[in-house]
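Recall the central idea of this unit: under ordinary conditions, the amino acid sequence of a chain determines the structure it adopts. In this exercise we apply that idea directly, starting from the sequence alone.
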Amino acid sequence: MSSFMAGLMTSLEPINILWVIVGGFLGTVVGMLPGLGPATAVAVLIPVTFGMDSTSAIILMAAIYYGAMYGGSRSSILLNTPGDGSAIAATFDGYPMARKGQAGEAMAISAVASFIGGIIAVIGFIFLAEPLANFALKFGPAEYFLLMLLTLSAIVSLSIGRMIKGFIAMFLGLLLSTVGIDTQTGVYRFTMNIPHLSEGIDFLIVIIGIYAIGEVLYNFLTIDQQKKEKKKVGKIWFNKEQWKRSRWPILRSGPLGFIIGVLPGAGGSIASMISYTTEKQISKKPEEFGEGAVEGLAAPESANNAASVGAMIPLLTMGIPGSGTTAVMLGALIMLGIRPGPLLFENQPETVWSLINSMFIGNIALVIINILLVGLLVKILDTPAKVLYPLIVLLAFIGTFTLSYNTFDFYLLLLFGVFGLLLKVLDFPIAPLVLALIVGADMEQNFRKAVLSSDGSLGIFFSSPICIGLIILTILSLTYPLIVKWVKSRKTSGKDQSTEEVS
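Accordingly, the structure predicted from this sequence is:
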């Protein structure tokens, strides 16, 4: 308790409150830019921490991290262009809401959902850090492979009515993830003698190409059919009905995202996708998902922000980064003389508890900042198409160039832009492709490690209660929509039969 109070007093020092606000604002701004996710934001701003007190430095970096998680959904909602992988789910219903003139409501509910998810995760951090860290250690390659398989099956199951297209999109994503050097054998795969492809295709290029360039091309094709009237931006606050629909999905997705965030390598992308699919499957109005369902936006926003806090647990308790961003932070912490690991809570308790308490302050500051920005950001929708679309293309090229500073990525960007247009015209679901690309490489490596560790036996995937639980969940996620459809058709046919008997 004394360490908690000491940390609280440190986090309430004016200079640390200032760093929380500055870090949160910078993270929000960088998170909005396509391609510049939280990892880039933290990496770019590390020099700012040089010469700072180590506690203030870690508070600043954490604020940048969860600030970027808040900001990532802004461009998803307004431009259908996710800031990073964890903001993809915000495009599913956030962008349709913006197109219906509810951009203000969408961004307000997104900020509040992120806030609640963050607060739930911080409370979870305080009470469950140690047991969850021990649970995460039980995940081996087989468990990680099955967790990623569950995520993919869950996202494909969303493609009701076009499941085959969903599977095709998923396999295309897995195929793209194999491009580059095989890290286990050193074999070049599908690189076509192009040296730049030896490192593989960055999933952010695919995301920016398919979503940003593809969206611009699609709008260019249909620009003559678009109405010329001024677009409505709606209110800048959500109504009672929207809150009523969102509150339980937010409260359910916060703990879910937090637990997934604790698993090293899982991250906000998987957390937001699983929360979205879960909410759609238990919703009374699943047909509204993808068309602007407010809970379809609120749930993943709560989950991905909670995941960003959860990812701090393996980082601080075991020195294992739970995401790309925490990997960058690990390097920065070591540089600052902080050694994450089991002894951190004993040797530097004030630093840890200052960070945890600063997260409370940071989430409060960020929800205020993001709500204040709503009125300004929604004006983007009122920008004329001839200004907005070139601006999106410019941001897409800048974001792509910052990934590796290689102009070859521009060709990939354009290629995936055209590819995204084709997918949209042919009505293919895009999410399975993108998610398969994100998790594909790790999924393959974990599968091979698991099989190698068991001398080629597939029994390793049934060897633990966690594995069996994940297999059951995978089967349920694929069959649940079909079962619900079958039950509904039975009820409908039963009613029709009763009506005929009565008549």
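The two ends are 73 Å apart (CA to CA).
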